[in-house]
Amino acid sequence: MAIDKAIWSKITLVDGDITKQNVDAIVNAANHTLLGGGGVDGAIHRAAGPELLAECRTLGGCATGSAKLTKGYRLPAKYVIHAVGPVYNDGHHGEPERLAGCYRTAMDLANQHGCTSIAFAAISCGVYGYPIADAARIALTSVAEKLAAGGSVEEARFVLFGQPVFGQFQAVLDELAGV
After folding, report:
1. Sheet order of strands, 67-71 included
2. What is the pLDDT of residues 120-168, one digit of tens each?
3. Average pLDDT over the chain, rounded to an integer
């Protein structure tokens, strides 16, 4: 699917802290239990407060490649979308499809709840070991395709922690957007 150049302008990259983003929804790089963990997941649970964990306990976990929505509680964001990315093996065991599924499901949930802005973490790029450039291509393309399809979301922000991740996402975005 060819993506109109104007769609790429709805995607921004930020080197920062996802828990501080003033958007309608943030997307957590969660594990399948949805009960918190390390990295981004732990930071979101700490910032949102114990109510987030209590709500997550009612959800029964989440399948890899999908996502579930909760309230944001003490976060600036109204919602947290918990997306469960794949552990990277070699890229030939369904990892690309599952990673794309995380972003597509998150965008669907955001649109269903009337969100106009959404902030994503770099799903599966930490301890799950997904190669950052490959993950960036999947993430950016999946989100751009959903933006092009229409819905309430008008701004998609990728909040990337640290220059190596930010730099690789920026290079892929520049390539895809034809900059």
Report:
1. 11-15, 155-160, 117-120, 25-30, 79-84, 67-71
2. 999 999 999 999 999 999 999 999 999 999 999 999 999 998 888 999 9
3. 96
- Residue 7, domain member (yes or no): no
The 8-class DSSP code of residue 124 comes to T
Q: Which of 146, 145, 133 is nearest to 174 (CA)?
A: 133
4 within a domain of the structure (yes/no): no
Angle between the N-to-C axes of helices 132-149 and 163-177, in degrees from 0 to 180, rounded to the nearest 10? 50
Distance of alpha carbon 76 from alpha carbon 99, whole angstroms: 26
> Where would I find the H helices in 19-94?
39-48, 50-57
Alpha carbons 43 and 169: distance in angstroms, whole number: 21
Q: What is the CATH number of the domain that holds 131?
A: 3.40.220.10
Q: Please report, for residues 11, 39, 106, 160, the alpha-carbon distance to residue 2 in angstroms, rounded to integers and kept in the order given.
A: 16, 34, 21, 26
| CA 115 to each of CA 3, 135, 154: distance values in angstroms, whole numbers, following the listed order | 22, 24, 8
Q: Report whether 70 contacts 106 (CB < 8 A).
A: no
Q: Has this prediction a pTM greater than 0.85?
A: yes
CA distances in angstroms from 155 to 12, 25, 34, 35, 117, listed in the order given: 8, 11, 25, 28, 5
Q: What is the total count of domains within the chain? A: 1
